[in-house]
Write a structure and sequence with these properties.
Number of helices of chain A: 18
Largest interface: A-B, 134 and 135 residues
Distance between the termini of chain A: 70 Å
Shape of chain A: elongated
Structural class of chain A: alpha/beta
Largest sheet of chain A: 7 strands, mixed
Number of strands of chain A: 14
Strand order of the largest sheet of chain A: 9-8-7-12-10-11-13
Oligomer: homodimer
CATH architecture of the largest domain in chain A: 3-Layer(aba) Sandwich
Helix content of chain A: 40-55%
CATH class of the largest domain in chain A: Alpha Beta
Chain lengths: 539, 539
């Protein structure tokens, strides 16, 4: 079994109970398990026309997910892909139907027609007013006199639901349902079949193929077509729909058949709007899973012509979360990019002391290149030395363009330079270090304070704590010792760097993936670089 | 390619545009395609604290689906499973941050930390107040110091979002976010890996196995476990979570990792509530796809301890449809089954005329058994004769229990008897026929009117029109001719039945699936049965 179920037999009752628990008290069920599986609104007083739908399970959220204010009054659930019994439907009708009567919304499958039909007769024998409409929106098989009912059924639930909620009588609600059924057309496409619980998955659709015009019970599509991409797929679907609709505004319902990702559904949505019937689509329901076929990786498009009354009925709020709303299709709104993405380069200025200091640091790092690479080969990919020396060479070359005389600007400029020449995580971390130091300096901090602020931010972003075997292990003690002079800082950095050779369990950075016996006895290359830098400056 | 996309390169921009179009004008994006993919609320005036999140795509609806009133202000989207660039994050921050400042909500991945971190520094250099929190809710690897950020991130969006919407300041919003991060724990389980667009699917998990503690980027779980059923699966997940939570009420977030069906998710939900920590789960978010991993067939559970303030923040309404609400977990409410499911058997009564008539009809059908079976073998499974004669024998045996003296009750009782002994579609259709006739009779119709009403209903439910090669082709003309006498009715029925031999394209019933050359020259068995019945009565 490759599904999160307990058994095929208990699947629907367990799932229905799970759904009821999570409905926040809005839903109850009839006490008729296992045969009678009927979900009912708890806020129902029989004072309005009741809407009852249902059918086989496996199409969730249809239909129990649409029970609630503004949509269905009750949903009668069969087992997976199996019609509920006459008794189950009758129980549903009897439980919710008051004087105003009840409309049964039935998808056009023989089992559903018969079981709902006989239940309706039995209910009528109790003196109840019961009407039944049959949804047959699937246009896949134009010659079949009894077209299947698929996702277009949701339009019936929504529009009839809105009217019933408003208190319209059974005649009017039934007439609206019939008008919707008359107008709605649907067709589906899939790249894969669905997995029926308890049965092995059928591999009917080869890679590179899609099925067009398929049903929601794993029935084969009317044809297998070549599948190239989302645009062509939607175009084939639109080619089937276009001849069946009249001019004028329509609402589209873009249904996820189950296993299609939201990314794919959004791409399909974009393609539908851009298609040759896109201009006619003024409102959209979804993309969302509405009438699924278990885990089928497919979609369906349903179209309904929309008059002024329908617009209100489609957009009125409802209680069931599964209904994603019906929203006007809009163009893609864009805002201009904000200013400031291209960093303003500060005016270059000179300061011999700062220039010499930076140049000296760069020389030290360049000199350490091969030693640092060798150390890094123990714990990483052996390029710490090269990465640092490349950046140092670039920084040396940029000295004439730096605002050397303004320490705040200088920190920021160095950070920017390093982020652009160094690449990878270390470039970003050093850029953060210098940017934060610049911020602190702008707020009046002295050099030690600024360096501390930089390190603090690097630790927050990088997540490295002292003892994690990173450059923090040398840099933190060095900065702490700096008020006592550069020599003290160099000594502290060296001690910290050498100590990393005893840390055999890295907790941040790439060395976390290295076995501890490979790390023992070797300094962390980042910490070593810091130590060499301070030692060199101190000399 | 087995996905509804156009190309890997254009996937995220096309999908984002599709999502924006369907947001009913609530969302816009920055004009920075293809590199800068930032979704922004259109109703934003920078007067409150902005919340910016994001990261790699492939986790939809996270994060663009949660942009809107009460949740995120902007979402910065990278390519699938790839962190967005520093520039993209910076653009998002600059576009939405006003005087009250901005909180960055970042999942704990190196790329996200670095890119959001550096963008924050750059934004601060513009004088903006920017804070950053890092979500690390995954408990899969208890020893890893940098736990991943997964679906628990949604709690941060919701609670920080509610406070920001209320107008709380950056300190307070950040503090709330940190408190949520401190408290939230998550773990995931999957039966299958995800399909990364443009790459072949990795088959890492064998049938019968599940991965526990997996990430949301297709990373392998911490271990492969035996998979038996939903209950044991949830129990393993709960075993990991239980030791990490304190006593007291919690909210659970049950996340669909992408490819799990709603049925499965509801079963898992039920199992979570029934589990050993079920008593502590007072509220639930979902089950719903919230932080997916493309099409992964898996789920994750996140738990957060809930105080009084959080309850309000969690349940406040928000604009994004993708947020399913946070509802109190309730017990399963049941309503008693309605009365009337077990049909009340009417009191038997006698009426020699009716008794003889029914007995005679039954004899006629029994006599026709083998002829009707032979005809049915041409177009169906050869059992029309047996089905009818079995029912006729049962009806004959039930004569003493029928309310023979009351025609209205008699119709209904015959219908009930047939529906219980005949089975299949024909049993239900005849039950509907007699039930509707009984209804009409109760309303004062004479026999012809009652039969007409019965036939009408059968046609509605069964969908058969005259000429569709069904029993309607004999029954309808017979009933129409009945006012002129039984002989006329018999003649009309025979004519109608014989005419079905010329109908080679069945439009209802099972014969629709039979090639026309097999049907030509043979009467429809149902129509033939009707003709024989009327002919026999007329004799």
């Amino acid at each position: 079994m490759r599904q999160f179920i307990n058994s095929k037999e208990t699947l629907v009752t367990e799932a229905l109970d799970g759904a009821l628990r999570m409905a926040g008290g809005r839903l109850a069920r009839l006490d008729g398990y296992p045969h009678i599986k009927v979900a009912i609104r708890t806020d129902w007083d029989k004072s309005k026309v009741a809407l009852v739908s249902g059918g086989g399970s496996g199409h969730e959220p249809a239909h129990a997910g649409f029970v609630g204010r503004g949509m269905l009054t009750a949903a009668v659930c069969g087992d997976v892909f199996a019609s509920p019994s006459v008794d189950a439907v009758l129980a549903g009708i009897l439980a919710v139907t008051g004087k105003p009567g009840c409309l049964l919304i039935v998808k056009n499958y023989t089992g559903d027609r018969l079981n709902f039909g006989l239940a309706a007769e039995r209910a009528r024998a109790f003196g109840l007013k019961v009407r039944m409409v049959i949804v047959d929106d699937d246009i896949a098989l134009p010659e079949l006199p009894q077209a299947r009912g698929v996702a277009g059924t949701l339009f019936v639930h929504k529009i009839a639901g809105a009217l019933a909620e408003q208190g319209e009588d059974l005649e009017k609600v039934t007439a609206a349902a019939k008008r919707v059924i008359e107008g709605v057309v649907s067709i589906g496409m899939s790249l894969d079949t669905c997995t029926v619980p308890g049965s092995p998955k059928e591999s009917r659709i080869e890679a590179g193929k899609a099925e067009l015009g398929l049903g929601i019970h794993g029935e084969a599509g009317i044809e297998q077509v070549e599948y190239t991409n989302a645009r062509d797929a939607m175009s084939m679907v639109v080619d089937r729909l276009a001849p069946t609709i009249k001019p004028g505004p329509h609402v589209a319902l873009l249904n996820n058949l189950g296993g299609t990702t939201p990314l794919e559904m959004s791409v399909l949505c974009e393609e539908l709007v851009r298609s040759r019937i896109g201009d006619q689509i003024r409102w959209m329901v979804g993309p969302a899973p509405l009438m699924t076929s278990l885990d089928m990786q497919g979609f369906s498009v349903s179209l309904l012509p929309v008059g002024r009354d329908d617009e209100a009925a489609l957009s009125s709020p409802v209680a069931p979360w599964a209904w994603p709303g019906c929203l006007p299709v809009s163009s893609v709104q864009t805002f201009p990019l904000p200013d400031g993405l291209a960093p303003v380069r500060p005016l270059p200025s000179d300061h011999p002391g700062h220039r010499d200091f930076i140049a000296r640091c760069c020389e030290l790092l360049i000199a350490a290149e091969s030693d640092l690479n060798a150390l890094d080969a123990r714990s990483g990919d052996g390029d710490t030395g090269s990465t640092l020396s490349t950046a140092a060479r670039a920084l040396t070359g940029a000295l004439d363009n730096l605002p050397l005389a303004d320490l705040t600007q200088l920190y920021r400029a160095v950070g920017l330079e390093l982020s652009q020449t160094m690449g990878g995580s270390s470039g970003v971390l050093l850029a953060i270090f210098f940017a934060a130091a610049g911020d602190a300096s702008a707020n009046g901090m002295d050099m030690v304070g600024a360096l501390r602020a930089g390190l603090e931010r690097v630790q927050q972003v990088g997540g490295a704590q002292p003892g994690d075997r990173t450059m923090v292990d040398a840099l933190l003690p060095a900065i702490e010792a700096l008020p006592s002079g550069v020599a003290a800082a160099a000594e502290a950095a060296r001690k910290g760097a050498d100590n990393t050779a005893t840390i055999t369990k890295a907790k941040a950075g790439r060395a976390t993936y290295i076995a501890s016996d490979k790390l023992a006895g070797h300094n962390d290359p980042g910490a070593e670089a810091v130590a060499r830098l301070f030692e060199g400056i101190a000399r």
